Amino acid sequence: MNRTIRARIHETAVKRVTRIYAATLADIFAETLQNSRRAGATCVHIAVAGLPGRAAELRGPQFTVTVADDGAGIADPAVLLSFGENGWDDATVRREDAAGFGFASLARRNCTVSSRPRSPDGQVLPGWRVKLEPAHFLGEAEAQVHADDTAPYPWGTSISFEAAESVEAIRTAAENAARHYPLPVVFEDRIEAHTAGPEELPRRAFLDGAVHAEPWRGLVFGVFKGRRCGYNDPDLNFFGHTLPVRLPAVETVNGPTWSVLADCLPPGSVSACPGHRSGGPGGLRSGVDDCPDLELVLPARKEAVENVFLEEMREAARLAIYRAMAADPDPRPAFEDRARAREAGIEIPPPPAVLRPWQPCVADCSDWREPGKLAEVGPGSPGDALVVVCDPEPPEAQALRRAAERAGIAARLFEPDWRLAGYPWYDALDRVTDLSVRVAAGDEWMALDAYPLPEASGLPAAPLPARPAAIRIGLAVRPASGPPRILDVPADVVFAGEDRSWIDELMPLVTEDSALQPHELAALIRAAYFSPSDEGDSDSWETQRERFEEAALHLATRLLLSDDEACKTSIAEAVRRELVWLAPRDRTVDIRIRRPDVTVILDA
Length: 604
Fold this sequence. Notes:
Elements: H1 25-38, E1 44-50, E2 63-69, H2 90-96, E3 111-116, E4 128-132, H3 134-137, E5 145-147, E6 156-163, H4 167-178, E7 185-189, E8 199-200, E9 212-216, E10 219-225, E11 236-238, E12 241-243, E13 258-264, E14 270-271, E15 284-285, H5 308-326, H6 335-343, E16 354-355, E17 375-376, E18 386-388, H7 394-407, E19 413-414, H8 424-427, E20 430-441, E21 444-447, E22 470-478, E23 485-491, E24 493-496, E25 507-510, H9 518-529, H10 541-560, H11 563-578, E26 589-594, E27 597-602
Parallel strand pairs: 1-7, 11-13, 18-19, 18-20
Antiparallel strand pairs: 1-2, 2-6, 3-4, 3-6, 4-5, 7-8, 9-10, 10-13, 11-12, 14-15, 16-17, 20-21, 20-22, 22-23, 24-25, 26-27
Helix pairs in contact: 1-4, 7-9, 9-10, 10-11
């Protein structure tokens, strides 16, 4: 069977027109302001007044919001309800993909439109007014158009709609719509309780603060250094309507992140970019009058169509960042970005040969610590740098850090940085790829997991492991050239057993000749094992940490001193925490306990 078909819009689609937009203030202001700009307006006026006949205590709309402009007006009122049709000239439709659906954002708001079209010869034409309710948008009723002598003079359009939002919410939505809008927007609060007169809303150039700007195919890119931005933050300004198109950001090596914004400007407008390098001081006059390849998802234009142009736009934005970095005195590019820039003929200076000192991880993931200060590595640096590319668990990492400090090699250990891979100085550094532990029981050396340990019972007086004669941590070193080797580091403490053990199951191994003190060992235990519970019925972080530290100090004192010393230390800590505030400042308190009795004696 041979037949043909053709696209069409079914009449039932009109029944769903009120759901094209969410009818939010943001939608309405975005659409009405864009229509005013297309109509050639020089200014837009937004006013809020009380809705006649509505008491403040009643629910529902309380205010009337009016958006008026001095644009060309609307010649044919029928275009308001002819969805997909618009009254714009061919150049505007081609430049902006004007679809004729934006007025549907008012479908739920009971709006009134008053307009007076501009005559080609300058004569003042009659004005008209039409009131529209949801039934009119749905095609369920005909809307009556009336003559209106009060229509904007000598030409322009005024749109009023009902709002249940607060005056503050209306003003905030208007400010957001006006922030990067190319025309001045005046806001007026006409509510009787307020006295503020008309006020021009603040505006700011979308590319304000950029350090570099350049035009590209109907857009202007502005490059920013160190600007914070999220994945879905708006990075494209479409004539005042901002939306995210996910332009790239370039992360540097131990430096600020570079990002880029794109501005779609009206012909002859100025994008303020103080200090940029493309258009001279005071702003880049775009000369932009066309960006037909940019396609936004209709009707709301809240996202861009994923097409070839958008891919090319992102790549061009990345190159704009590279050009800005090339002119910066300290760009610190990752190797991949520098190589990518060189392929495009952009030369960015390489970063200096510096790395961050290696820091051992801790069990408490919320325990944030300031990164170490950058230090020079490579030729001329003290000692041979070792990049710790393995990822030891907190107990292993804490033991290694103490051993490295005692052996004098801590300053040689550095954090890896994948962004530097490819630079010759970084690739030439030796890597620590793994670590192992050997423990000596008498004259016999054995792997850590073979060392004899008592069974963990969880009791406060549970047996402790015997203190070994010696401990060695072996670092597996992979040099840039030559065979792998083992760097043997003497240690005086390691942790046996599971990495995620409970405090009453820990098995610290401390050598017989170690000078480690109980408080030092307790601090190592806390860093290696303390991880607070975040369940709803758990104690606070502070309470959990205090209890862990007390248990860790008790364990450390038992191991390094004696059970009696551990008992005395724990009791003293409990008294200091819970009871010391009860004792008189000028008297001595003796507390004697023989369970179950407690005797308290105050001196005279």
